[in-house]
Amino acid sequence: MTITTGKKKQKIDRLSELAAREDERGVSLWQEAFRRLRRNPAAIVGTVILAIFVLVAVVGPFLVPYSPTDTIGIRDGLIKPGVIPGIDGDHWLGYDHQGRDEFSRLIVGARQTLLVGVVSTLIGLAVGALIGGVAGAAAGLGGRWGRWIDSILMRFIDMMLALPSLLLAVSIAALLGASLTTVMIAVGVVSVPVFARLLRGSMISQANSDYVLAATSLGVKKPKIALSHVVPNSLAPVIVQATLTLATAIIEAAALSFLGLGNPDTSVPEWGVMLADAQQYIDIRPGLAVYPAVAIIITALGFTLLGEAMREALDPKLRK
Amino acid sequence: MALLEVDDLSVTFSRRGQRTVHAVDGVSFSVDAGEVVGLVGESGCGKSVTSLAIMGLLPKQPGLRVGGKAVFDGTDLLQLDDRSRRDIRGRDVAMIFQDPLSSLNPVIPIGLQVTEVLTRHRGMKGAAAEKEAASLLDRVGIPDPKRRLKEYPHQLSGGMRQRALIAMAVACQPRLLIADEPTTALDVTIQAQILELLKDLVRDSGTALVMITHDLGVVAGMCDTVNVLYAGRVVETARRRPLFREPRHPYTVGLLGSVPRLDAGRGERLNPIPGSVRDVLPWPDGCAFAPRCTRRVDECVGEPPELVLAHDGRSYRCVNPAPVPGLTPAEDVRAVVPTDAQPGSVPAQAVPDDPPTVPGLGPAPREEEKP
Amino acid sequence: MTESDILVEVRDLKVHFPIKRGVIFDRTVGQVKAVDGVDLSIPRGKTYGLVGESGCGKSTLGRALLQLTPPTAGEVSFDGVELTTLPAGKLRAMRRRMQMIFQDPMSSLDPRQNVESILTEGLQAHGIGADRDDRRRIIGETLDAVGLPRWALSRYPHEFSGGQRQRIGIARALVLGPDLIVADEPVSALDVSIQAQVVNLLDELQESLGLTYLVIAHDLAVVRHISDVIGVMYLGALVEEAPSDRLYTEPLHPYTRALMSAVPVPDPDVEDRRERILLAGDLPSPANPPSGCRFHTRCPWAQPTRCADERPALREIRGSRVACHWAEQIASGELKPHAVSAEVVRPEGEGEAPSVVSAPSEPGSYV
């Protein structure tokens, strides 16, 4: 009897726990998304890859065994026509065509690559979000004049979209002369339409939602509605796109460097340049092409994994 | 013998790293030939999952488990392989869904979709099939059926789409028709048309109908027998009139008290069920409805209440059911109350008229909800 | 009833949406007359219920009344102030006194705002409350009024159940201390048992705060339960307006009768006894409404004269307002219903109707 009563008491306690919920703070959608992100193996793998990449980019140049510009191989007479020595004891990945330590160049190149990727994505994001945000706010909340502004901005974006991206980048590079800045601007400009269209579409759909109507009926001013409701709720896809764009930006920057539109001072290591240089010696030392290519692929994969995981985590359809 | 006998049907979805969801948790009911049976409940009570499980239409995914039995005319539908299940589906058992637009193929004309059923199950072809399809559309009240056959689903209105879907469902004169919220997406006047059509079809063809709905009004007008579901289990079964006149399970009482009635006066307070559908106790731990129940007593918690069989084929799953006027509690209730708790030690020992109080829980919940 | 007892007066309100076609240059090819000439007045402290099926324009009417959708023509006077000509700034200030409750409590709450921020927004917009503490006090009282616990403040909408979210929506409207609340399908997205909680809450709030409601719903039973006066809409116009009880006991318009007989009642005895008036066919498209009386294509009492070519005006019959040429004859039983053959109605924007219909979707309608 006592046992059953005790058991019953426990059950009742459990029931009353249902009734009185502990007074914890609410969980916002960002926190919720972060929680989901942490549980996603793809996100973890992506984050680890990127963490290593960033770490290498930041501290790598201080730790490399050799200077990336030091032509040791030529000095030591190891480089002869048709011969590029491979891996030896101190030089883990061997030498490049000018006798520089390949491993050191790869490590130091990470910094340039990261810089190009981040800066060009930021350029694209800033310009694209500005155009898209103005167009989206104008179209969603601005009435008749707003629709005009939106039309004009979007036709401009459509024109950008109509040009093949690599061609656009090549012409920008041709216009500004070959340099790292050119590569960053070119790659950034190419991603502008993507961000603009994405933010605009997302904002328009948010502007038609019930809570925007509710804010209007509360008497909140339109600029405030745009900034405090429409924009924050439209950002999720843009953030995801930025992560994915980082991956393509790195690849595109490499492609532009490969075409010789990057930094004219080829002694500064950059993965795209290294890849470009390696093609002449691909039959002598194919490894020289493989190392930077693999580095680019792994980094792009890291960004893509994280981006896709973020897309999942931020997807409103998966919310409970 | 019953046409369809569902016995202890359970559907669980389990995913790695997440809590197992018992969508259906031991549902039993039976349908006689020609009978209209209602499955009533709120969102999440498992009524739709029940019908999909019977039809074998649950999306195949890892972690899905279907248990129990669903015996249709001697064969257990749950044990059939896909092929023979497809044979039965459409020919002997047909289903109508809530959203007619998504149940129809948007790129195929209505006529072809109807004749397809006729070809598959009745072996009709060509002009004969087309003629039969037109007469089916005519039978479900679609005007100018010959022309409609060539049209696509998006060219029809919601009510007409639902009629077309019903035409496909009854094409093979099935013995059992399962209608899952067939009128929820429709307007009131269109709903009346469709309900009338279903009634006529059932009356004329002797088809048994399982009507799944959340609308007690629809049930009151159509069903012979009603099963009330809560948290994946049938909590009360009764013939139509007794259920509405003297509901026994507190949940049924609560549902009836919650619905504003057209024939009630302005300003009459409704008697809502406190809390929300989320406040459930897992069945193994007691009555799932206990956290929201105003008639809660001690026995509600601890183990699931057993099914009480009362006279007139009705049954309910409650230890402290609502009283029936003119019936002494002794003959109806006391006999089934588990007596492991000492009488007297607990205040409200299953005497239906006592106000329920449970030590440790405070008074029975009021209108506040708990998240 | 004196003039000052009327809080809202709507006169000949029209909301027409252009139907546009064309790839580059939009060409207006027609109009969806979502609301086409509605007159109504809402007495202070009372509830006006608006019923009708999807596409009848009831939600658009509610929004046009609050100037959330600009009306094409007509007047809306709120407590003596004409809203349609009010400058934007004054209108925004006026919004404090007229609030709205939405159908879907999830989509009408910003998912990234917590409850405190949702409730503060309106207060800030109107400069109510001296400081943060003062606002907190107002918000706390509102939470009590709608039956939400104080700890709700730091929570986000997705952490609540449907019924609680609707309470948050009600609190957001209530926190500004409005006179009028337009409730657009306030319970249709909720479970049956939760509907009753919200209906009761609305009732209690009206009693304690003296609110005036315009309740828009497709569910006649819900509307009848909370309304003093009910207006029945069909294709953009009122067909009947009557006190709640009279509408039930003595429906005069054929459409009201049909609607009334179509609503299922959870009582087998009533269900078995009642006579059903089944309407033939579907609601005609508001882009191409029938001539004359808009209901004549489906009306079992339609007569060969007048109905097809003369649009009936609302006229007073025994305390109700009815837009039917033959209301008296139908009520007295002089005219008998006849069978109507159904006409094929195209869904909006499909088939024979114009290809692009730019009428905004009505979230309030029950689609």
What is the tally of beta strands of chain C?
12
**Helical content band of chain C:** 25-40%
Large-scale geometry of chain A:
elongated
**What structural class results from the helix and strand content of chain C?**
alpha/beta
Low-confidence stretches of chain A: 1-5, 15-23
Can you give a write-up of this model?
The complex is a heterotrimer of chains A (320), B (371) and C (367). Chain A is mainly alpha-helical. Chain A contains 12 helices and no strands. In chain A, helix 3 packs across helix 12, helix 5 packs parallel to helix 8 and helix 7 packs across helix 8. The longest helix of chain A is centred in the middle third of the chain and has 40 residues. The N terminus of chain A is likely disordered. Chain B has 371 residues and is an alpha/beta fold. Chain B has 12 helices and 14 strands. In chain B, the strands form 3 sheets. Chain B has an 8-stranded mixed β-sheet, with helices on both faces. Chain C has 367 residues and is α/β, with parallel strands linked by helices. Chain C has 11 helices and 12 strands. Chain C has an 8-stranded mixed β-sheet, with helices on both faces. In chain C, helix 6 links the parallel strand 7 and strand 8. The two termini of chain C are 38 Å apart. The C terminus of chain C is likely disordered. At the B-C interface, helix 7, helix 8, helix 9, helix 10 and helix 11 of B face helix 5, helix 6, helix 7, helix 8 and helix 9 of C.
